[in-house]
Amino acid sequence: MGHTSSSNFFNIKKVLGLETLSIKKLTLLGFSLVALPLVAALLYSAAQINQLSNQSEDAIFNAAEFTETTKQLSELLVKMERYASQSIVLKNKELTNNYFAEEEILLNLISKNLVNHHDTQLKKISSQFLNEIKVINTLLSPNNKQTLYLTQLQDQFKRLAKTNQRINQRSNELIYNQARNVKTSAKTVRQTMLNSLLIIPVTILIAIFFIIIITKPLKKLIAQIQQLEQGNFEHKINLKSSPEVNEIVDALEVMRTRLHALELQKSSFIRHISHELKTPLAAIREGTELLYDNSVGALNPDQQEISDIIRTSVSRLQRLIEDLLDFNIVLDSTSLQDSEKLIVTQVITNVLEERKLDIKRKSLNIQTSFSHIAIYSNAKQLAVILDNLLSNAIKYSPEYSTISITTTLHNEELLITLSDQGMGLNEQVINKVFDAFYQGPAPKGNEIKGSGLGLTIVKELLMRINGDISVSSKTQEPSGTTFTLKIPRAFSLEN
After folding, report:
1. Distance of alpha carbon 162 from alpha carbon 154, whole angstroms
2. What would the mean pLDDT of 291-306 be, rounded to a whole number?
3. What does CATH list as the number for 48-195?
């Protein structure tokens, strides 16, 4: 399933023509595709808000204009009615002139703000208003020969007041309609703004898509580099991606080829030299044993002492050769790539069985606490790791002491702790204990020195399987040293 999705992903890249683009061009393209919808949404929202602002401004201006116009109309009508009524009663020409002066102001106000308005109904009412004013003008005209009564004039002004009231009502309706339109527009703009937020997930998806396009080859490249770090030089580095990644792949492939050739040379040299050393060493050891046992004749005390020195040195040399062969396992990664399901308890039991004589010789007590755990790893690697740690613990443990071994499972990691009751290690020794050929203080009663490769082998092999090791120690009573191993790809057998 994962392989299918990965293939589909790279098919998409190929179809879109993104496979051969450089990281720089991919970054610019991704940024553009992410920014473009956001900029478009921002510009559209800005245009909508600007339109709403203009609409609101017009509504406020029209409302203020209508309010002021209707107010002035009402005030002018009151004045005109007063002047007209007084002119009839008092027969005063000046009052009549005052009426016509106020009328002129009123006519200008109507012609400016109402007659030419875009609303048809308001224009119609305004025209009726003007016609009614003309009727009053006719009644007040000097050319009117008929007798003008005050009640007649007042009735006409009442009609004019009703028409003015209709103008007020229509003005209020227009103000309300504009306010409602502004509210509707505001709601539309708000909904548009909310809809534009949907662009954010889209841009996030686009950004994630390009992040995957850019980082997926880099992750594959990191995995290839980790394989090299773990000493896997067998598999060719083959990855097709952007030009920058392809250049790194080509450089890594050249380095892998050279490292593989160099590793093969080292492994071959160590195997051959170890074999060549072991053959004459076996003859020397056999001859030394014959001399030491007086099998070819009795030796005087000086000869016996020299024979003992040779025997001890030969044993140390044999141990050095064996450590060198174990170290060759670290260098020879070609034999350690296969992983299999291993039951941890069985591996530890086998290692203890191989060290049974060494344990018995010092009368050591092995205390174990095992959980039912299995891991996917290389059996030879794990056995060499445990054997070196157990050998080190036996070497530094005093007679009749206890060596503790426990296994636990934590977050899919196997934890193995191995503790002894030896003299302990100070901080300076702990900092160097994994260095190649470093030998700490020799334990009491141990005349044969080690090679200083045991813990180096452990460290290197753990690195090959992505494991880790830590040391804690006490030099004061009760003294002792504890090694803790962490190995991934572990699981419980109890489920």
Report:
1. 12
2. 76
3. 1.20.120
